[in-house]
Amino acid sequence: MIMQNSLADKLAAGAATMGTHSLSSDPDIPEIIGDTGLFDYGEYCAEYSAFDMQTLYHLARAGQCANLPLMIKPDQESQGFWTQAAMGAGFKAVLFTDIRTVEDVLECHRIIAPDNPDKGGHMGVKLRRPALTGYQPDDYLDDLNSFVFTIMIEKNVALDNIDAILEMARDKGVAMTQWGPADFGFSRGQPGLMHTDDIRPFEEQVIKKSIEYGVAPRIEIGEVEQAKRYIDLGVRHFCIGWDRFILQAGLTRIGEGMRKLLETV
What we know:
The chain has helices spanning 6-12, 28-36, 53-65, 79-89, 102-112, 137-145, 156-160, 162-171, 181-187, 200-212, 227-232, 243-262; strands at residues 17-22, 41-44, 70-72, 93-99, 148-153, 176-179, 216-221, 237-242. By secondary structure, the chain is α/β, with parallel strands linked by helices. It has an 8-stranded parallel β-barrel, surrounded by 9 helices. Helix 2 (28-36) runs parallel beside helix 3 (53-65) and helix 3 (53-65) crosses helix 4.
């Protein structure tokens, strides 16, 4: 069964979207997220995780069980293999990292776009989970065409090339850009830059330029209160929270509460 890409549908309708991140490869996580009924998708941060192809199948099945489309964020070095593996497992979106040049956008498009005259990509008929109930290339092509293509703008050199990158991104169907303050400061030799107000002009440039080129900017935040500033800048797409940090915050809260209580015993 091929799952309808409800994230692509919302983006096509011009609706605001909200996702959340997971670094755990436990399939319970996307099922828990989906069961809340509050999120449009879950982003599996494979770049920071340990997994295999079978894990991607389990994650995608769990997401499908909970009506939650999944996005994969692969490491750049192996992005072609793992993105196509995720597509075959049933993921519905990708966030490509470390975009530096127009050529990087073209390479990402090549990885996910169908190998046909209309799209000009290199993704052929690799029916994995979509073939479990029958070999239907037409349905498979529709599924490939609905795959949501997003990219990180997170390198100093990418801002030097931002107009050309965003022009190509628009032409190749990139749905969203994602600003990456940590890698941006790191690539400038200023690893602590993201924790200062000096990062804001660069961030706002990416947001403004993305809107100018018709590619929706997405922003990652940790708390609801952080969203208002970005909404005022024109942002309508967010990915909020990381499972690891949500767990840590919850454990800290209950742990500190119990420690204070036990000190009085």
